[in-house]
Amino acid sequence: MIATLYNRLAAEIERLSAPTLPTLARIVFAGVLLMYFWGSGTTKPGPGLFGVLSPSLGAYAQIFPRAMEAAGYDPGQLGLFHRLVVVAGTLAEFILPTLIILGLFTRLAAVGMIGFVVVQSATDIIGHGVPWGAWFDRLPDAVILDQRALWILLLLVLVAKGAGPLSADRMLGLR
């Protein structure tokens, strides 16, 4: 009797979560991470309309802290690879969150964001010396392991489930 009731309830929750979970994941992404990434992105472009193509000194220092220190904080001493990574990273901070919010190419954008978070985390640990933190330590606020694991889990929901019914993907007939 209890097992039957439980199974019915679980089936109903599963049925209702199919359309709502991905939409809620996008709303949570917007509320928790959108302005974080856009705010970070706004620190990187150089002056002018096409400033994103000529990144600021701060952009290089944020993304390649050790290389910039070795170059005397002169981005001109760094190569084309460094410039391309900084430009791509800056564009990614604006474009990928926007795609997720719109629900456009959501799975691809979420995979891109997962890659971005992994690279960001490696940069924070290796380049900026941010401690990893620890799991199972009763403290839920380690910047890297705790917080970023939750970010990636949220993004994995979008990879697995897509954008949900209220999305550009759905309007365009994309899966």
From TrEMBL:
Subcellular location: Membrane
Protein name (Swiss-Prot/TrEMBL): DoxX family membrane protein
Keyword Membrane: yes
InterPro entries in UniProt: DoxX
GO cellular component, one term: membrane
Superkingdom in the source lineage: Bacteria
Keywords: Membrane, Transmembrane, Transmembrane helix
Pfam families referenced in this protein's UniProt entry, alphabetically: DoxX
Its membrane topology: Multi-pass membrane protein
Naturally occurring in which organism (per UniProt): Aliigemmobacter aestuarii
Ranges that cross the membrane: 21-39, 80-101, 108-129, 149-168
